[in-house]
Amino acid sequence: MSQATARITALDTHDIRFPTSRELDGSDAMNPDPDYSAAYAVLRSDAADGLEGHGFTFTIGRGNDVQVAAIEALRGHVLGRDVEELCADPGSLSRDLVADSQLRWLGPEKGVMHMAIGAVVNAVWDLAARRAGKPLWQLLADAEPEWLVGQIDFRYLTDALTPEEALGLLRRGREGAGDRRARLLERGFPAYTTSPGWLGYDDDKLRRLAAQAVTDGFRQIKLKVGADLADDVRRCRAARAAVGPDVRLAIDANQRWNVDEAIRWTRALAEFGPYWIEEPTSPDDVLGHARIRHAVGPVKVAAGEHLHNRVMFKQMLQAGALDIVQIDAARVGGVNENLAILLLAARFGVPVCPHAGGVGLCELVQHLAMFDYLAVSGSTEDRVIEYVDHLHEHFLTPVVIRDGHYSAPTAPGFSAAMRPESVARYTFPGGTYWAACPDPRKGRAA
């Protein structure tokens, strides 16, 4: 008797919020009091193995319920899917979700709906990697180039990257991959840390954490800037003194400035040797980024965490607007779209330094950067993954940092599963933490 086909039976959603505004963790010039949050999705099936797929998208508090509702709007596309077929071709679901003719109107391919698609698609990849018994980076790196190309939607990209060009990049990327894998497993992937640099931290805390970062092996730190120039000069001076001349110092304006203001402000901080200025202006302003880049060199321009799809990355690269591409694992439409962005960056010869931090973004994006190293770029030169020392304790397989490097994950999956006790405590508004708050909007437990 043939075994019954296993199918997806549930897409569970959770509104999870952490009260990070209490200590000003994550504070910057545009977002002074974030409560780091996750719209969290869990795929369940009737398969005998009992494996689940976990995915999420990141928000900073209010509106996380809107993001959860967007994920729930996709449930009809997911329930009843053949598990084996879904895991063999996650791109099939990605294409169906993006192509929903009515939900698509809410983007198209941008904003809350597209981030919801990313959460669901990433949950499928988590399930596929678990079923394969491999961490996601390894599942991707082991995959045949032809299969990877088949996972990518090349619509709107072929004036910059064709499937044939992508296939060529992936075939060349396989050369020497075995040696790189051995180095990755031994040494890990270089990281930098933003933990010292939140705008709400006082100077003593900045200096202490910056010095500790160097002791811990980091060769780059990042500071938030953009609210007050005199404060930024003082803080950059303190940070440079704490880390010395040989550690890179990046700065991040979080979209605070107009174009002319970005140029003027970055030049004013140039004496401290910033390696890059991140998100100097509106994330949608392609020509503005290009103008800033040409005006502030040798300071590099980095952006990408708020670029909402592969087309925006394409235009930024075509316009020569970026020195550094910063992918985000939960902003675009999941792994499939990030594969396209990694290949676009390789096509234009621009290094990828992923955005991370948040809730679980470090856990996710390490897999994509490691795949890029093993199968696309073949290099870690001028490539680093952001690291923020917050909230990792809520994940079943948290990141491991050793001597300023991300250790390659070994557990099967996408490192996305949260601890059940954390879900129970921080689900909003009924979790045990939030239920004890006299005013949940202020994040203060009774």
TrEMBL record:
Q: Which SMART domains match?
A: MR_MLE
Which Pfam families does the annotation name?
A: MR_MLE_C, MR_MLE_N
Q: Name the top EC class.
A: lyase
Xref: SUPFAM superfamilies: Enolase C-terminal domain-like, Enolase N-terminal domain-like
Q: Mandelate racemase/muconate lactonizing enzyme C-terminal domain: which residues?
A: 203-299
Q: What cofactor is needed?
A: Mg(2+)
Q: Which keywords does UniProt give here?
A: Lyase, Magnesium, Metal-binding
Question: Which residue windows are coiled coil?
Answer: none
Stated EC number for the protein is 4.2.1.68
Task: Give the domain of life.
Answer: Bacteria
Reaction catalysis annotation: L-fuconate = 2-dehydro-3-deoxy-L-fuconate + H2O
| PANTHER family per UniProt | ENOLASE SUPERFAMILY, MANDELATE RACEMASE, MITOCHONDRIAL ENOLASE SUPERFAMILY MEMBER 1
The protein here is known as L-fuconate dehydratase
Organism field: Streptomyces rameus
